[in-house]
Design a protein that fits this description.
Blueprint: H1 17-34, E1 40-47, E2 53-62, E3 65-72, H2 82-96, E4 101-107, H3 112-117, E5 121-127, E6 134-141
Parallel strand pairs: 3-4
Antiparallel strand pairs: 1-2, 2-3, 4-6, 5-6
Length: 143
Amino acid sequence: MPSRPEGFTIALAHNGDARTQAAAALYRHNIEQTGIDDRAVIGAELTDPSGKIWGGIWGRTELELLFLDMFFLPEQLRGRSYGSQLLMAIEEEAVRRGCKRAIVETSSFQAPQFYRHHGFEEFGKVEFEIPGHARIFLRKSLQ
């Protein structure tokens, strides 16, 4: 890579160290701009009697929004209302924290119908190069 006049260079990243530092700096910037420091991890997990975690839903709350980052249940536990119960638990906690809306992104081959069934509406889509598939963005009012 050619050197820049100031001596900076650009290199591809292969670990998360700089990303973690940049995320913290960006969050500090967000606090400076909004005056609000309310980001918090949120999650609900499905465990068996031995304490083994089988799946769950994880994300964060921030600026009156619930961001759902990951939701997983193994195939054999789907269709038994565990997913609905996990989603309800995390939404109730988000409301308790003051969240007004929830946002999730999923792929067409993952769970868009699950989210639609639970009141989410699509507000954006980015087509994949895989025919018939896309990244889908959904939102829901929690009020």
